[in-house]
Amino acid sequence: MIIVLRPDATKKQIDHLIEKVKKLGLKPMVSRGVERTIIGVIGEEDVLRVQPLEAFPGVEKVMPILKPYKLVSREFKPENSIVDVEGVKIGGKKIAIMAGPCSVESLEMLMDVGKKVKKSGANILRGGAFKPRSSPYSFQGLGEEGLKFLKDVKKETGMKIVTEVMDTRDVWMVEKYADILQVGARNMQNFNLLKEVGLSKKPVLLKRGMSATIKEFLMSAEYILAAGNFNCILCERGIRTFEDATRFTLDLNAIPLIKQLSHLPVIVDPSHGTGKWDLVSPMAKAAIAAGADGLMIEVHTNPEEAYSDGEQSLVPYRFDVMMKELKAVAKAVGREI
Amino acid sequence: MIIVLRPDATKKQIDHLIEKVKKLGLKPMVSRGVERTIIGVIGEEDVLRVQPLEAFPGVEKVMPILKPYKLVSREFKPENSIVDVEGVKIGGKKIAIMAGPCSVESLEMLMDVGKKVKKSGANILRGGAFKPRSSPYSFQGLGEEGLKFLKDVKKETGMKIVTEVMDTRDVWMVEKYADILQVGARNMQNFNLLKEVGLSKKPVLLKRGMSATIKEFLMSAEYILAAGNFNCILCERGIRTFEDATRFTLDLNAIPLIKQLSHLPVIVDPSHGTGKWDLVSPMAKAAIAAGADGLMIEVHTNPEEAYSDGEQSLVPYRFDVMMKELKAVAKAVGREI
Amino acid sequence: MIIVLRPDATKKQIDHLIEKVKKLGLKPMVSRGVERTIIGVIGEEDVLRVQPLEAFPGVEKVMPILKPYKLVSREFKPENSIVDVEGVKIGGKKIAIMAGPCSVESLEMLMDVGKKVKKSGANILRGGAFKPRSSPYSFQGLGEEGLKFLKDVKKETGMKIVTEVMDTRDVWMVEKYADILQVGARNMQNFNLLKEVGLSKKPVLLKRGMSATIKEFLMSAEYILAAGNFNCILCERGIRTFEDATRFTLDLNAIPLIKQLSHLPVIVDPSHGTGKWDLVSPMAKAAIAAGADGLMIEVHTNPEEAYSDGEQSLVPYRFDVMMKELKAVAKAVGREI
Amino acid sequence: MIIVLRPDATKKQIDHLIEKVKKLGLKPMVSRGVERTIIGVIGEEDVLRVQPLEAFPGVEKVMPILKPYKLVSREFKPENSIVDVEGVKIGGKKIAIMAGPCSVESLEMLMDVGKKVKKSGANILRGGAFKPRSSPYSFQGLGEEGLKFLKDVKKETGMKIVTEVMDTRDVWMVEKYADILQVGARNMQNFNLLKEVGLSKKPVLLKRGMSATIKEFLMSAEYILAAGNFNCILCERGIRTFEDATRFTLDLNAIPLIKQLSHLPVIVDPSHGTGKWDLVSPMAKAAIAAGADGLMIEVHTNPEEAYSDGEQSLVPYRFDVMMKELKAVAKAVGREI
Predict the structure, then answer these.
(1) How far is A298 from chain B (nearest CA, A)?
(2) pTM (predicted TM-score)
C-alpha cells in the first residue's frame, strides 16, 4: 500500500498517519521527496485496505499494490482449474458448448431443441426456468415445472443442465435439477446469492455484470470460492457502453485478461452479448480464437414464437453450420470441440 | 409500434408479418415508401412488445412508441406523489434530509451521529445493518443487532429510519425495524427482491443501478408498484462511466428527466455518487437546484475509523455548515428544508 | 513514481531497473516486501513518465504520483484565474452568461436573438460560423460571412463574441472577429489546433471532449497554456455514457472537481449537455449551485426553423424566465449575475 | 421518418406539423391511435432530417428510418470494396498486415524493425512521424524527417507505408511520402481533415474515435467518400468504457457489424485497443476469426527504449510467433495471410 500525501501535509498529520500504520502492526517506510512525502507500507495489505485512509487529513491518495482477491487468483493456483460437470470437463483442451432456448417454454420445444443441439455437438443444455425480465409484465419463466422439463431432456439426451437461480430461497430447490447453477449478470453483486451458491456442491456459472470491471467480477467469484465452492466458471456476456448498435458490447479482451489473472475457466455468451443472431457466429469464432473454454448459445426452433430473446436466437440449422466452423477455429488454436 | 422492413423484404415476408399482427388482434397500417415498407401497428402495444418481431425474416428494426412502464408514469398520475413516512413527507415542498453513517457500527456512535444530524435539520436516519461489499473479506454489517440500534436512536431522537434490505429472506424481519426499506443499486434488478418489498406496507427507497438507464430504473420501480406498493421513492446515486476521478458520475440530469416521466419523488445521494467528501456539499446544492425532493448524506463522527466509506463521509460540523447553505438554495428554488 | 515488481521478478531484472533509474539521474528507493518488491523513485517524475517502464521485464505496474499537468494546476497558481474579455470578467464573483443560436443563420435572426438575450442579462453572444456536423450533408455554417454578422451584432449590442474555430488554417482569420476562440468537444485532442490557439492573444474557451477524463481535459488546456496563452476557460458540455434518454450526460461533478485541481474558470453548456430544451433551465440552476463561473445557452427565436440543434434551444421568453431564476440561485451561493 | 406526438397534442399542433411536412414536398401519413397520433413521412427523408422537428409543439419524439449515410452503405454497393495500395489489396481474401513502431524514432531502428516484420510476413509498414500525445511535454514526432525515414525503409524492403496526418496544413506534404494516409481516433470528427484527405488520391485509413458509435464512424467515412475518395479503410482500435484493466475496450463486434452495414474493408489495431502487449496476440487471432480484413500491430526492437507506447509493443520475435498462429486461424476461416 502506498500512501501519497498532499504537498501541504503537516508534520503532525504525517506523524498521526505513521502512528496509525504502526498500531495496525505494519511497517511504514517514509520517503520524503522534493514535492511531497510518500509512505510505503510493508506487511499484510488487507489489514490496511479496510481502513479509510483517504479520510485522514493530509492524505491525497492511497494506492493498493496487491490484488484484493486471493483464492481465484493465478498466484494462488498457477495451473488452470478444470471444472468437472458429471464428466463434461470445462477448462481443459476440449471446449464446452452450452446451447438451448433462452426460456424453457414447453417440454416439446425443449426436447426438440435439445436433441438437435446435441446432434450438432453441444454437451450442455441451457434454458431458463426463472427469468430476470426488466418488465413485470413480461413472461417470468415456468419455475419448477421448467426445471422438470430440463431434467426430462437430460434423461433423454444425456446433456448436462445449466440453469439460472435468482433467489436465495430457491437455491436448494434448483440444485436438485441443475448440474450447473447459473448466477445471472444482474445478480453478479447479489452477495447473499453468491454466498448461498458457494455452499452448494454443484458447479456455479457466474455471469459478468453488465457494468462490472474484471476486478469486481473476480471479487464476486471470490465470494463463491470463499464459501467453499471452487467449481466456478466465469462467463463474459457483454458490458454496457455508449454503443447502441448492439444490445451490449461483448468484451472478448476479458478472456485473455482473466486467463492471466485467474485459474478459473472462462466461457462466452455471444447471444446476450450482441443481442443479434447474425453476430453470434463471428463472435463465437472470435471467442474461441481468443482462448475461451466454452460457449453459451441461444437456439430456438422458431425464434418468431420465442417468449424471450427471439432476435438473438439461432435456428438449429444455423447452429449446426456454426458448429462446423467452430471446429476449424478450435483446431487452429490447439483446442477441440 | 413501428416495424421497418429491409429494402429487400419479399411480399411473402411482408404478408406473413401482417398476418401475425392481425392474429394478435391488432391493426397493421402499411406504408409502402420508395426505399422501403413500414408497418405501423395501432392498438395495445404491449401485446406486440413481447413478440420477437426482429426475428422475423424481412424485418430490419422494430421501434416501440409507447413507454413500457405504466403505473410509475406521469401519464398514469399527473400530479406529484407524496410519500408519507410517519408524518415526514417526501415529494412535497419540504425537502427530506436523510443522514447518518454508511454502516451501523455501534449504538454509541450511531446515537452520537443521530443526535447531531437531527440538530442540524435531518429528519431521517440512514445506516446499513446489511452491507453489500465487493469483497467477502470486508465488514458485512451487524445484521439484526444493527437494526435494533437504529430503533434505539429513533426512540431517542424521533428520526425515521431508512435501511437496506439485501435478501428476500430478510424483508419481513427488516420491515419490523425500518420506516423505509432501501433496495440498493446492486439489487435494482433483483426482481424477486422488488416483488417482495412491493408486498410490504412500508415505503421503499429504490436506488438506481450503476449502469441502469432511466427507463430501466422506472421499470424496476414499476415492479414495486405492480406488486401493490405505491410508496416508492427513487434515488439517483451515480452511474458508471469512463471517468475515474470520481467513484461514480452523479447524474443530476436524472432529476428533471424523471420528474417529467414519473410522478414519484426523486432524491439524490451525493456521498456514494461522488465518493469524495469534498464534492458532497456542492453536488448536494446542485441536486436541490435541479429539483430533487431529498438528499441522502453520509455523516460519521470519525471518518478515519469508519468501517466503510470513510472517504466520502462528512463530519457533523461540515454537515451542519452544508445544511445552512442548502437552506438558501432551497429557498431560491421555492422549496424548504 | 512507484514501480511495482511481479512476485517472480528476478534479482537481475530488479538490478537492471535500478540501473535505468539511476542513469536518468533519479534516486530509486527499494522496499523489499514479503510478497513483492517495490521501487519508489524520488526526483523529477517527468523524466521517468516518458519511459515505457511497464515494458521492462519483471515490472507489474507503474503508478505515477504527481499530476502530469503543471501550468493549469492549482498548485502552480493557488488563486482563481480571472479571464478578462474586454472588460467582461470570467472566473470572479459575477457569473458570465453566453447566449445565442447554435449556428449563425442570418444577420436578421442573429440581431434579433442578440438584442433579446442582451436585454435578459447575457453579456456574451454565442453563434457558430463553422459547424462540426456529423453528416457531410448537413448545414456546415456560413463561414466568414457568419463572423461578420457576429461583429455587426457586437457593434449594435456591445456583447462580446464567442465562436468556434475548427481548422488550424482558420485561427488567424477567426481571431479578427472573435473575442473568445472556442475549441469544440470534437477537437479537444486536436493538438495542433490547441497549439495554434495557444499562440493567440484572444481568450480560448475549451470544451471537454465527450469521452475525455478530467485529467485529459486539463492536459489539453495545458497545451494552450504551454504555448503561452493563459486566458483559458474550461467548458463542461456533457460526456458520453450508456444513458440514451439525454443526448449526453452533463457531468456537473466536473465543476467542483476542476475547481480543486485547477485555477482556471469553468463554465457549463446545458444545451448541448442534455440535448433537450426542457432540461436546460434545471441543469443551469444546478450548475450555478455547484460553483460554475458561467453558462453557455442556446437561444433561438424560432427553434422550429433552426438549421441545427433546434430541439435544445430556448425561445427568448423562456430564456428570460430562466435568467430570473438563475439570479436567485446565484445569490444563494454568494454569486451574482 | 416517424413523428410521434404527445398524448396531449392539439389538433392545431398536428395540423401545423402536417402543413410543414407538405411544404417540404413530402407526403404525411397520419395514424390516429387510441393513445396518440403518429405521422409517417414518405419521401426523401434527408429533407426532413435537417429539420428540428422535436422543437415543434406537440411532438414527443422523431424516429428516422433510413440510415444517414449513403455512399459507405452496403445498400449503395453490395459487394465488398477492395482498396488497392500499389498492389497490396485490402478487403479481399488475403489479410493485410501493417506492422512497425508506434513512432518513427530513427532510421536505424525503423530499418531494423521494417526488415524483421517484412520477413515475418507484414506487407505494410506503420510508424508515426506526427504523434497526437495527450501531454504537450511528450515526444511529438520527428515530422517530415520521420516521413523520409519511412520512404527509405520502403525503398529497401518494398513495404508500403501507412502514417498519420494530424493537420489539414500537412495533408499534401504527408501525401508525398505515404501510401495510406491515416486519420487517428482523436481526429475522427475533425471534419475539415476528413474533407482534405477526401480530396487526396491516396487511400485513407480512418480510425474509430474512442467514443464513436458505429453510425458516427460510418458518417465520418461518408465525409471522405463524399469528397471523392472511395479508397477508405476502417480501423477498430478500442473504445472507452468503464473497464480500466485495459487501456481501451477493443470492440470486435464492430467487425461483423460494419461488414453488414458497409462495403468498406475493416481492420483492427489490438495494440492500441488493449494497451498491453500480452493481449495483442489473442485479440489479433480473435479479430481474424471475426472477419477482419487486416491488422495493425506495434512492433519495436527494444520496447524499453520506445519513445511512446512501449508497453503495448511486441518484440520482433513475438511478432513472428504470432504471425504463424495467425496463419492457422486465417486458414480456418477461409482467409490467407
Answers:
(1) 13
(2) 0.91
